[in-house]
Write a structure and sequence with these properties.
alpha/beta; Leucine-rich repeat, LRR (right-handed beta-alpha superhelix); ten-stranded mixed beta sheet; three-stranded antiparallel beta sheet; elongated; F-box domain-containing protein
């Protein structure tokens, strides 16, 4: 009986490798002939790219400008969740894009410094450098915009989180106004962002977005912002700055969590009565811990 084996594999290059046919009783051929993937019609190329792992697709896009242009025309499924981590460190600014799917996690680094990545249980994080798409003469946030435009086409996401570490207010503003990051679904704010920076995040609030301020975020007692509770979900650990006026301004909010507040019992009762008597529910769920 004759057995025939045909193997087709991608080796992170722009060529499709066809490894020779082997038959029983014959030695395996060592001849390998390359087939330029750019010669494929668009639809077969798109089908092949859709079956690639995300790191293979990204590596293929980095091989040449022509291959990148081919891949940018493809329509891929939205099946990833992405987090963009911005932070100033002593050795430079970090801009890491973490991409997670059901089969794994990949980190794309486009800053001059790199954040230590923790390993999730059972998840292998692959780290990819994209220096080809970055210009060392330009600010890190600008490079992150350039890279993320390509990431969104190659590996579309169902939701994006912005993590703001140690950043000054000017850089927080750059992130918030960037066209590439405007569709963020959640903003996680670290304690190294000051009150003005937190205010910039609130300027871009929406009932489709959520905000989480870490326990280290300590806003002054006289802090106020008209959109502080205009998020779908908001989580403020240190909320001693919150006044009854903030709560009464809420409309259509899904969830609010506050751990430490200076609200009086009478004010909380006023808010409860307000929720019960309002024709439009101001709040779906609240937690005062």
């Amino acid at each position: 009986m004759t057995s025939i084996g045909l193997f087709i594999c991608f080796l992170n290059t722009s060529k499709l490798k066809i490894v020779g046919v082997t038959m029983e009783g014959q030695s395996k051929t060592t001849d390998v002939r390359g087939f330029p993937i750019q010669m494929l019609p668009f639809l077969p190329l798109e089908l092949i790219a859709k079956h690639m792992a995300m790191e293979e697709r990204l590596s293929l896009a980095l091989t040449s400008t022509k291959t990148e242009q081919f891949l940018m025309r493809c329509r891929f499924h939205e099946d990833s969740v992405q987090t963009i981590f911005f932070c100033d460190q002593k050795n430079g600014q970090v801009a890491d894009i973490t991409i997670s799917t059901d089969v794994g996690t990949m980190v794309v680094q486009c800053g001059v410094a790199h954040q230590d990545q923790e390993m999730g249980a059972g998840i292998i994080k692959k780290v990819v450098q994209v220096s080809k798409w970055c210009d060392k003469k330009l600010p890190t946030i600008h490079n992150a915009q350039t890279v993320y435009r390509r990431i969104c086409r190659l590996i579309p996401s169902i939701g994006m989180t912005v993590y703001l570490g140690r950043l000054d207010t000017a850089d927080v503003e750059k992130v918030m106004v960037a066209e590439e990051f405007k569709d963020w679904m959640m903003a996680c704010v670290n304690g190294d962002v000051d009150a003005r920076g937190v205010g910039v995040v609130m300027d871009h609030s929406s009932l489709e977005k959520s905000v989480i301020c870490s326990p280290a975020v300590r806003l002054p007692d006289d802090f106020t912002h008209e959109k502080a509770f205009h998020f779908k979900q908001s989580h403020y650990v240190n909320a001693r700055w919150v006044r009854i006026e903030h709560l009464l301004s809420m409309r259509g909010v899904q969830e609010v969590t506050m751990m430490y507040t200076d609200l009086k019992v009478t004010e909380i009762n006023t808010f409860i009565h307000h929720c019960m008597e309002s024709e439009e529910a101001p709040l779906g769920n609240s937690r005062l811990l």
